[in-house]
């Protein structure tokens, strides 16, 4: 009985701390705070929030930035330009969120530049929306995959061609094949960017999920999938991708910002564990989360730590294989989070 009470106290305290950290980093994520304001805002949370001063060379010495000329180009309503800017001493999200293995609290990483920095970006002019850019968060999130990948690489989603280019300049990469559904982006790449790159890269017009479902991709050593703008969008198709991955055992898969999404999933599970231990209502909208949680023994603090730190891709893959119909109908994380607030 005492163990259960200790577990309840632990999960209640942990979720309260997570709420506090999340509240304090809202302004830091969107670049609305200067370095001084940011440090004052996270005072006392230094163990969870890291702020790094980046030298301008981090951007300007990047091979893509140095070698690929970007002008102000427009294909229908899609633009590619070099006009986006980081203001000096404004703080922005940097590396992906992670979790402290001891405290289980979320660790956030931010950066700032000591001077104004321009960088290339891709988006739409109407509505005015930036999709992606060659910026520190993108550079750092792709770096591990770029370092590891070799041989024949399949890239789902073209964007600015950053990943394809960075892979193509590696000696141990033989070929890079891009699969892109949006004809405007494909045209932008073929007309303006591909002529500046090497012959290792080719681009195919197709839907990524359909391609993975019908094509034999055994000739590819690696496959990187990036067909979303953020972690919340990734989750809606993530279980479906994990099912498709089972058809291609010889290819190693990479999902952009997967680790960041896992952190959000862990946060949801921590909230559900709290509700379950306290006997509170849990919405059926959270089927995947409930199914997985109910399959685990969660009675002690060590049980919580063991579950939260377990590899999420393996856990969700197993659930998807056992619940294929639910996996292909998975709803967005936005709906899951709303269900938690009911």
Which key features would you list for this structure?
Rossmann fold; five-stranded mixed β-sheet; 46% helix; 342 residues
Architecture overview:
This protein has 342 residues and is α/β, with parallel strands linked by helices. The protein folds into three domains: 2-136, no CATH class; 149-227, Vaccinia Virus protein VP39 (Rossmann fold); 259-340, no CATH class. The protein is 46% helix and 23% strand. It is built from 15 helices and 14 strands. The chain has helices at residues 2-29, 35-41, 57-60, 63-67, 136-148, 162-168, 183-193, 208-214, 231-245, 258-277, 287-294, 301-308, 312-322, 324-327, 333-340, and strands at residues 30-34, 49-53, 73-75, 78-86, 90-93, 98-99, 106-112, 117-125, 128-133, 151-156, 173-180, 201-205, 222-225, 252-255. The strands form three sheets. Strands 1, 2, 5, 6 and 7 form a five-stranded mixed beta sheet that branches. Strands 12-11-10-13-14 form a five-stranded parallel beta sheet. Helix 1 packs antiparallel against helix 10 (258-277). The longest helix is centred in the first third of the chain and has 28 residues, at 2-29. It is globular. It starts with a helix and ends with a helix. The model has no long low-confidence stretch (mean pLDDT 93).
How are the secondary structure elements laid out?
Layout (H helix, E strand, L loop, with lengths): L1 H28 E5 H7 L7 E5 L3 H4 L2 H5 L5 E3 L2 E9 L3 E4 L4 E2 L6 E7 L4 E9 L2 E6 L2 H13 L2 E6 L5 H7 L4 E8 L2 H11 L7 E5 L2 H7 L7 E4 L5 H15 L6 E4 L2 H20 L9 H8 L6 H8 L3 H11 L1 H4 L5 H8 L2
Parallel strand pairs: 2-7, 10-11, 10-13, 11-12, 13-14
Antiparallel strand pairs: 1-5, 3-4, 4-8, 5-7, 6-7, 8-9
Helix pairs in contact: 1-10, 9-10, 9-13, 10-15
């Amino acid at each position: 009985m005492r163990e259960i009470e200790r577990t309840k106290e632990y999960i209640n305290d942990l979720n309260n701390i997570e709420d506090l950290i999340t509240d304090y980093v809202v302004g830091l994520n969107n670049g609305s705070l200067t370095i001084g304001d940011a440090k004052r805002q996270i005072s006392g949370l230094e163990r969870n929030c890291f702020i790094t001063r980046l030298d301008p060379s981090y951007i300007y010495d990047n091979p893509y930035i140095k070698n690929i000329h970007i002008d102000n180009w427009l294909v229908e309503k899609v633009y590619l330009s070099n006009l986006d800017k980081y203001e000096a001493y404004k703080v922005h999200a940097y590396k992906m969120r992670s979790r402290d293995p001891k405290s289980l609290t979320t660790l956030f990483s931010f950066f700032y530049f000591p001077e104004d920095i321009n960088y290339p970006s891709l988006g739409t002019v109407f509505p005015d929306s930036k999709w992606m850019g060659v910026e520190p968060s993108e550079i750092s999130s792709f770096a591990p995959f770029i370092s590891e990948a070799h041989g024949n690489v399949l890239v789902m989603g073209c964007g600015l061609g950053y990943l394809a280019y960075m892979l193509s300049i590696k000696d141990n990469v033989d070929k890079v094949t891009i699969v892109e559904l949006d004809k405007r982006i494909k045209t932008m790449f073929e007309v303006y960017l591909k002529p500046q790159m090497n012959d290792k890269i080719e681009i195919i017009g197709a839907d990524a999920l359909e391609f993975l479902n019908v094509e034999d991709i055994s000739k590819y050593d690696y496959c990187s999938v990036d067909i979303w703008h953020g972690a919340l969008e990734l989750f809606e198709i993530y279980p479906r991708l994990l099912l498709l991955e089972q058809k291609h055992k010889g290819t190693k898969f990479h999902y952009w910002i997967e680790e960041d999404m896992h952190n959000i999933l862990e946060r949801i599970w921590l909230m559900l564990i709290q509700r379950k231990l306290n006997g509170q209502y849990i919405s059926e909208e959270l089927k995947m989360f409930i199914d997985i949680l109910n399959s685990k023994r969660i009675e002690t603090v060590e049980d919580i730590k063991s579950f939260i730190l377990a590899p999420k891709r393996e856990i969700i893959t197993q659930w998807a294989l056992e619940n294929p119909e639910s996996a292909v109908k998975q709803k967005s994380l936005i709906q899951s989070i709303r269900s938690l607030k009911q």
